[in-house]
Amino acid sequence: MKQWLGIEGVKLELVLPEKFSVEQGTLEGKIRMYSKNAQTVSGLRLVLIEKYTRGREEEQLVDEYMLGELIIRDEIPVPAEGEIVEVPFSLPFEPMQSEVDVFGSKNFLYKGLAWVARKTRNAESEYRVEAEAQVTGVGLSPFVQQVIGS
Q1: How many domains does the chain fold into?
Q2: pLDDT, tens digit, for every residue of 52-85?
Q3: Which top-level group of life is the source organism from (predicted)?
Q4: Are strands 143-148 and 85-92 parallel, antiparallel or unpaired?
């Protein structure tokens, strides 16, 4: 029962760079996996998500956008007793631009106006990476998410 629920199964950790810029277009990192019992990971799914908030207090609006997704379909054996397996990844993504960002990219004068508009609207973005592993013989897939700095 414990194995089917994933209680003593595969655990995931994300190893991400300290610096992140949305202009990069690709996010390099590693997924670290370990388990108390020997298991096989049959696939990994990674997603980069932007959480875009604007407004203040009761009028605050929040939207989330999936910027990129990577599916790894390799079979990866994860040995027992906490031996760590690392899988490097390169997650391509397309940044989203708000109307203010598009306006600001037209020339350097508009860039300053766009910055003022974002500050006035209290607009900001937060980025996170989510990873999920498909494990053979397990009903609940291990999952991890981590906010990445920009």
Answers
A1: 1
A2: 888 887 888 888 999 999 999 999 999 988 789 9
A3: Bacteria
A4: unpaired
